[in-house]
Design goal:
The complex is a heterodimer of chains A (419) and B (178).
Chain A (H helix, E strand, L loop, with lengths): L1 H6 L28 E5 L11 E7 L2 E8 L7 H5 L8 H5 L6 H16 L5 H29 L4 H21 L19 H25 L3 H7 L7 H7 L3 H6 L6 H4 L12 E3 L5 H25 L17 H6 L1 H11 L8 E9 L2 E9 L7 E5 L1 H13 L4 H11 L3 H5 L1
Antiparallel strand pairs in A: 1-2, 2-3, 5-6, 6-7
Helix pairs in contact in A: 4-5, 5-6, 5-12, 5-16, 6-7, 15-16
Chain B lengths: L6 E3 L7 H4 L1 H16 L23 E3 L14 H5 L5 E7 L12 E9 L8 H5 L5 E3 L15 E2 L1 H4 L11 H5 L4
Antiparallel strand pairs in B: 2-5, 3-4, 4-6
Classes of the chains: A mainly alpha (419), B alpha+beta (178).
């Protein structure tokens, strides 16, 4: 056992270094200008998801940062090449899991664009309601967690009660809460039922009070403003050069919104404003998201009021499943049922790109079909991937605690970053 | 940059003197907290108290029997094809004479397994089934597992028990009596 003793050095407790007073003309001790390498992530408790940033720190100041991606890369684009179109919807659930209905609807609309299906207005309005609910829940999470990162846990808890109510509405519409798999190619899987409507109306009644309370706690709070104003600003030019979209670009002062510039799913029917910020700092991003929640609330109000009667799915028997009662009874319906489920429907060859305004930016689906039963190539344009590239530039020169706040206000979701 | 006429600047005015003081904010914040003391609690005490699921909730799978207690599944394999997670496997068998009271059709699933670790509860198997055999129950959720071999659910755990029929609203959904 003697060799073990040899390799174990005597443990010496090094006393903490006394604070060094540097006199003029005196050489600096060696460790003064020493940089520290800090691994922020991949499992850091302050980051929301699996992100790794290798930071060079001078004391508490960040000198440089190298982000790493791919910790939850699941090769969705490759998996999608071997799946019939309807089976890709569950994959899109898992992109930005804070607002999965938007991803689902965006994918359905992409396929409908390729196939040339016109969706009835009722289905479009139900989709608008689901998408705006998803936007509210996405922004609630982002703003609530920004509060947690600046040291205010209370607002987060109050907002999460509302998010639970939104998830209850999802559950009534589609049957699941987080990974929704909502809607089908050519419409919705079921009509907007009374239970969902009752829950939605109840939510609409109670939500403004909670949101006002949250805004009262945060918007003009000194600690919050000190922590966020002029932290991590980005100019409109830099933001556009990176390819920013969504709330983060609007915070920099550019009023680009896919819902207005390139309306889809009847968004041209609704009146809403585009909130824009001033210099793209963390406070602007927070305020833009807060205002967008109110605008989404307005859109849902209008959609509920104007919800048209009619069918909730398109007349496209080659792509939309026949009703179950028909499947048990008629031969033709059963044949279509088998053909759709087995994925034996050949899509026309072509390329489509369909952007939707996702929870945190322009979520695009670039679909290339070679006339087969699966996509030849599918690319998700994921806004988080673009924001994360700008993150090193935004955090250099700030302190570590500010970097956490910047990251949380950019709302980078790990599932969407890595796809 | 202005692209539309719908934009509106958010409020970012500098803090007033009243806002610069910490004390009013602390008082109003405490007021909010105290107000919530006297409000209805949103918490659910889970194991004793359970929240109500929606009637279309996608919970634990069940393989339904018909009104005479015969298994509905004919092992057509459509659910396994539709499954995006490739969680379902099955082996088909032929019904022997004398087994008419067990299986509805001449072909039945000898082995039917769902790997609950793979399953993502998307509900596509229920949608794919042309025989109203597999359903995701709205009132039961998949249990937690302690062992790896508990994860693969065979027919012993999937087929509904005659004394404990699963409620899936089958009449409303399909127009067929359970």
């Amino acid at each position: 056992m003697s060799h073990i003793k040899e390799i174990q050095p005597d443990v010496q407790i090094v006393p903490a270094q006394p604070q060094v007073k540097v006199e003029v003309g005196q050489a600096l001790p060696e460790y003064i200008n020493e940089l520290t390498t800090l691994n922020l992530g991949p499992t850091h408790p302050a980051t929301h998801g699996v992100f790794q940033n290798i930071l060079q720190m001078d004391g508490e100041k960040i000198i440089s940062g190298v982000p790493t991606i791919g910790y939850i890369h699941r090769a969705f684009e490759k998996i999608a090449e071997n799946r019939p179109f309807y089976q890709i919807t569950p994959l899109t659930d898992r992109l930005n899991y804070c607002s999965s209905p938007i991803n689902n609807m965006g994918w359905h609309m992409t396929v409908e664009k390729l196939l040339g299906i016109e969706v009835p207005r009722r289905a479009q309005y139900i989709r608008v309601i689901a998408m705006e609910l998803a936007r509210i829940s996405d922004h609630l999470i982002c703003n609530g967690i920004l509060g947690v990162d600046t040291g205010a846990f209370t607002g987060f808890l109050y907002l999460f009660q509302e998010r639970e109510k939104i998830y209850d509405i999802y559950e009534e519409i589609c049957g699941s809460r987080l990974t929704t798999n909502m809607g089908r190619i050519g419409g919705m899987e079921r009509d907007f039922n009374e239970r969902a409507e009752a829950k939605l109306r109840q939510f609409m009644k109670g939500f403004p009070a909670v949101m006002k309370e949250f805004e009262g706690l945060f918007n003009r709070n000194r600690i919050f403003m000190d922590r966020t104003v002029d932290v991590g600003p980005i100019t409109a030019e830099r933001a556009m050069n990176y390819g920013f979209t969504g709330p983060n670009l609007r915070a920099a002062g550019v009023d680009y919104d896919v819902r207005v510039m390139n309306p889809y799913s009847s968004y041209e029917d609704f009146e809403f404003e585009i909130p824009v910020g001033h210099n793209g700092d963390t406070y602007d991003r927070f305020m833009v998201r807060n205002q967008e929640i109110w605008q989404s609330y307005r859109i849902i109000e209008q959609a509920l009021e104007k919800l048209p009667e009619g069918p909730y799915f398109a007349d496209a028997p080659e792509y939309y499943l026949p009703p179950k009662k028909e499947v048990y009874r008629s031969m033709e319906a059963l044949i279509y049922h088998f053909k759709i489920i087995m994925g034996e429907i050949d899509a026309p060859a072509g390329e489509v790109y369909h952007p939707v305004e996702g929870g945190n930016g322009e979520l695009g689906f670039y679909l290339i079909s070679d006339g087969g039963r699966t996509p030849y190539r599918l690319h998700f344009r994921r806004p988080c991937f673009i924001y994360y590239q700008a993150f090193p530039e935004m955090m250099v020169g700030t302190t570590l605690s500010d970097a956490i706040v910047i990251m949380s206000s950019l709302n980078v979701i790990a599932g969407e970053l890595d796809a | 940059m202005k692209l539309t006429n719908r934009s509106r600047k958010t409020d970012k005015s500098p803090m007033t003197i009243a806002e610069r003081l910490y004390l009013p904010a602390i008082a109003s914040g405490l007021g909010t907290t105290i107000k919530h003391f006297f409000q209805k609690k949103p918490t659910i005490q889970y194991p004793e108290q359970k929240r109500e699921f929606s009637p279309v909730f996608r919970g634990l799978h069940v393989l339904k029997r018909d009104e005479q207690g015969r298994e509905r599944c004919t092992a057509c394999g459509l659910c396994a094809v539709a499954c995006p997670a490739e969680a379902i496997t099955m082996i088909a068998g032929e019904r022997e004479p004398g087994q008419e009271h067990l299986y509805r059709e001449e072909k039945y699933a000898e082995v039917y397994e769902i790997n609950m670790l793979r399953c993502i509860f998307c509900g596509l198997c229920e949608e794919a089934c042309p025989k109203a055999a597999i359903f995701l129950q709205p009132d039961k959720i998949a249990p937690a597992f302690y062992e790896r071999d508990e994860v693969i659910f065979g027919k012993d755990r999937l087929v509904e028990k005659m004394d404990d029929r699963a409620s899936v609203g089958i009449e409303k959904y399909t127009g067929v009596k359970s």
